[in-house]
Amino acid sequence: MPKVLLIKTSSMGDLIHTMPAITDLAAARDDIELHWLVEEGFAAIPLWHPSVRKVHCCAIRRWRSSLLKRATRDEIRALKHSLQAEQYDLVIDAQGLLKSAWMARWLPSEKHGYDRNSIREPLASRVYDVQHAISRQQTAIERNRQLLAAALGYALPAQRRFGLAVQRPADLAVAIDKPYVLLLHGTNWASKIWPLACWQELARRLSEAGLQVYLPWGSDEERARAGQIASHGAGQVLPRLSLTSLAFLLQHARLVVGSDTGLSHLAAALDTPTLGIYGSTDPALTGLVGSRVINLAATMDCAPCMKRECPKLSASEPQIPCYRTVDADRVWQALQAANWL
């Protein structure tokens, strides 16, 4: 059985957008044993696809700050040896960065990746034995699908399926005995943060509609915001959850509303009705993809600005102005029009 290593290390949204390519591969080449090299913080994600046989973890984000330490060098050496021991027939670098090409270079196997015109960091393409021209004008999902199909020689099916299946973790203590909605208020860009008043109003309406509102969080700042949303009597702040526990809740939710964040993309991939709120980012580039999604974008002239910080914030304008055009009323109307309530 041919053994293949897929290198796609991060981030969450990028990993989720690789899943349709895995589904294609499994349907076309069921003779392949697929392994996945991923950042340690996302180790659970590849195993949500039943066709991934084994996961290997790197820690580049952590190693960067301690490259000169002996413990780091030992850790890198151990990963290198464990990968070499697998004796892969093929390596596919779907990340296309110098950091991923550096790890691909450890292996004597035939290496496939994007050519210099298809890649974010062109120097990385020099590592690959076989380079594939994949247009950068396509979505990440289609680029991943085409890369794996080209590397392994099969035709792409017309239908695109994520193929995820998250099993309930044994330690999940959150009740799911009534219909519930998750509000994904956390995000890594300040410009993506939907106003607190909008979250509070939406949570109130959802609660009055008979839905249990759950508020997850991943940082102290997000936990504080979740508490503020719930303080108006609508919503329950969840305990800190593992990524798999949160994925299971997303999979079984009545609906999900979220900012442009990895968890929103995960909910969409799990075929949960998901509404994404877009202000500074462009849904044409990073919109939610799935059979039941709504992408609501701000309609101001400056949107999408693609900036991490809103350039229009000031003492006289303390809230991001583009969200005036995608407020709680507009979200509520979209949910009603979709018959998701």
Give an account of the 3D structure.
The chain has helices at residues 12-16, 19-28, 60-63, 70-86, 98-104, 140-152, 196-208, 220-230, 243-252, 262-269, 283-286, 328-337, and strands at 3-7, 33-39, 52-58, 90-93, 110-114, 130-132, 180-184, 212-215, 236-237, 255-259, 274-278, 293-297. It has twelve helices and twelve strands. With 341 residues, the protein is α/β, with parallel strands linked by helices. The chain is 33% helix and 17% strand. Helix 11 (283-286) links the parallel strand 11 (274-278) and strand 12 (293-297). Helix 2 (19-28) runs parallel beside helix 6 and helix 7 crosses helix 8. 41% of the residues are buried. The longest helix has 17 residues, at 70-86. The strands form two sheets. The chain has a six-stranded parallel sheet, sandwiched between helices.
Uncertain regions spanning at least 5 consecutive residues: none
In DSSP terms, counting alpha (H) and pi (I) runs of 4 or more, how many helices? 12
Structural class: alpha/beta
Number of strands: 12
Terminus-to-terminus distance = 48 Å
How would you characterize the largest beta sheet? 6 strands, parallel
The value of Rg in angstroms is 21 Å
- Percent of sequence in beta strands: 15-25%
Output the helix-strand order.
EHHEEHHEHEEHEHEHEHEHEHEH
Instruction: Categorize the overall geometry.
Output: globular
Q: Helix coverage percent of residues?
A: 25-40%
Overall average residue pLDDT = 95
Tell me the strand order in the biggest sheet.
3-2-1-4-5-6
